[in-house]
Automatic annotation (TrEMBL), chain A:
It comes from Forsythia suspensa. GO terms for molecular function: ATP binding; proton-transporting ATP synthase activity, rotational mechanism. It holds the Pfam family ATP-synt_DE_N. This is ATP synthase epsilon chain, chloroplastic. F-type ATPases have 2 components, CF(1) - the catalytic core - and CF(0) - the membrane proton channel. CF(1) has five subunits: alpha(3), beta(3), gamma(1), delta(1), epsilon(1). CF(0) has three main subunits: a, b and c. Produces ATP from ADP in the presence of a proton gradient across the membrane.
Automatic annotation (TrEMBL), chain B:
Pfam families: ATP-synt. It comes from Forsythia ovata. Belongs to the ATPase gamma chain family. HAMAP family: ATP_synth_gamma_bact (MF_00815). InterPro entries: ATP_synth_F1_ATPase_gsu, ATP_synth_F1_gsu, ATP_synth_F1_gsu_CS. The keyword Transport applies. This is F-ATPase gamma subunit. One of its GO terms (cellular component) is chloroplast thylakoid membrane. It is found in: Plastid, Chloroplast thylakoid membrane. It comes from the Eukaryota. Produces ATP from ADP in the presence of a proton gradient across the membrane. The gamma chain is believed to be important in regulating ATPase activity and the flow of protons through the CF(0) complex. Gene3D superfamilies: 3.40.1380.10, ATP synthase, gamma subunit, helix hairpin domain.
Amino acid sequence: MTLNLCVLTPNRIVWDSEVKEIILSTNSGQIGVLPNHAPIATAVDIGILRIRFNDQWLTMALMGGFARIGNNEITVLVNDAEKGSDIDPQEAQQTLEIAQANLRKAEGKRQIIEANLALRRARTRVEAVNAIS
Amino acid sequence: MKLVAAAKVRRAQEAVVNARPFSETLVEVLYNINEQLQNDDVDIPLTKVRPVKKVGLVVVTGDRGLCGGFNNSIIKKAEARIRELKALGLDYTVISVGKKGNLYFLRRPYIPVDKYFEGTNLPTAKEAQAIADDVFSLFVSEEVDKVELLYTKFVSLVKSDPVIHTLLPLSPKGEICDVNGICVDAANDEFFRLTTREGKLTVERDVIRTQTSDFSPILQFEQDPVQILDALLPLYLNSQILRALQESLASELAARMSAMSNATDNAVELKKNLSQIYNRQRQAKITGEILEIVAGADALT
């Protein structure tokens, strides 16, 4: 019995195949999903999705969204998703540094909101790359 | 140029088709959550309706020219809307997407512009996310009270319509409202297909009603429904913006196809006319020379 995982972004399907287990970051903590999990619906935070596929763990950086876990069918809708293997480590590190600098420079409620979001995303990408290496 | 644009329309169409699984699932989930929340008062920042003092206008234009009246018509619509807002005494700010729009607003410093975004050949979720971030922070920090999206809706290969849609505040049911208050249900999805009919390229528009199946009754919400709605609505915002970008791109390509096709036809006709004039001149000169020679020969004998 395997889980069927579908990760969708607004413009493409990032992942659509069977997996053995996933670990998802939600607003209320991380949840692990094994086959025959009870159906739940949850919001997904900006964070890492770990997928156990062929006895290997793969990471994917998710930029916030929603997940629905049904009868061995998981549908994850996110604003953007990147596979850990697709991210360039140096570029991710640079983006993180730029985001941190922007947050320090930010003034006013609006810039702070934007800078915080950008920082969380950059951090997630760096974590996704580091988690597999 | 026409065939290049035709090939790109096909790619744009594929992009729209790829976006469908996401928006279908999203709409399904939105509907189901709304049913659960029917009687509760939903208080989420993105749906908050405030008295409007300042309006944000997101104007989507193209990157390049040679597309007929495409860029002009959307810019004219934007100017008309700005005049309307001024007449109502409302303040406004513009978010310009696309090089042509950027150039236009840069040359007019009297129009307040919040940010300039460059367009791309194929709009991806990243670009939509960047615009969504900007719009989100403007709305949530209460700098603007309403955000409207101005883009060109694709009607057919020869016709496209600049439209204005209210982007924020979102209605929790996922409806998209026109400025006149005409709302379209999110489950009525439209998409276009580039096909051929009688050997000519045409576009068909289909409307599909997304089937909203019931959630399994034992579905538990990990967080309370309001928090989940809070996570869903930014996704919806993103997909709306992406949809607008894709439609705008498709309209631009269609306008370019038809403008280039007209240009080609005109060029062919011009070539034909010039060839005829050239040949006539050439023949007239030859006839003249022959007449001179004959006259000369006649004079000698």
